[in-house]
Design a protein that fits this description.
The chain has a two-stranded antiparallel ribbon. The chain has about 130 residues and is mainly alpha-helical. The longest helix is centred in the middle third of the chain and has 40 residues. The structure holds zinc ion. The site of zinc ion has 8 residues, from loops. Zinc ion binds next to loops.
């Protein structure tokens, strides 16, 4: 009898795990490409803080402190370099997209309606500011 109840419980948990949970899980949040960078940076800074704390407490020899600190700084440099690479890659994409998005064929004066090929601060025709909200 006990075994039957236990088996039923296990089955219930299995069903819950396999069927109920995946369906009720919220949509995964879009992960920022810099999230792991931020996390890695935070972790290294925390380790550096701990390291200084331990040195002050006398738990660490100067030699151990210097060596561990150097390791952490190397790790940090690598993380930052990766972040820069990522930024550069994303930056290129963003720039291309932005250039496409805001490259109107012409600029129209909001006051007199005259069209110009180049963006200007003031209309060459009526002399009023080219930007409506300027
Ligand atoms: Zn004008």
């Amino acid at each position: 009898m006990t075994i039957a109840i236990a088996a039923l419980l296990v089955l219930g948990v299995l069903i819950y795990t396999l069927i109920v949970r995946p369906g009720s899980l919220p949509e995964p949040e879009p992960v920022s490409p810099f999230r792991h960078v931020d996390e890695a940076k935070a972790r290294i800074y925390e380790n550096l803080r701990d390291l200084q704390f331990e040195l002050r407490l006398g738990k660490l020899s100067d030699e151990d402190y210097a060596r561990t600190k150097l390791d952490l700084q190397k790790e940090l440099a690598k993380v930052l370099a990766d972040a820069d690479k990522l930024k550069a890659e994303l930056g290129v994409q963003t720039t291309v997209k932005a250039a496409k998005a805001k490259a109107p064929a012409e600029f129209v004066c909001p006051h007199c309606g005259k069209k110009f090929k180049e963006a200007m601060k003031f209309c060459g025709s009526c002399g009023k500011p080219m930007e409506a909200d300027a």
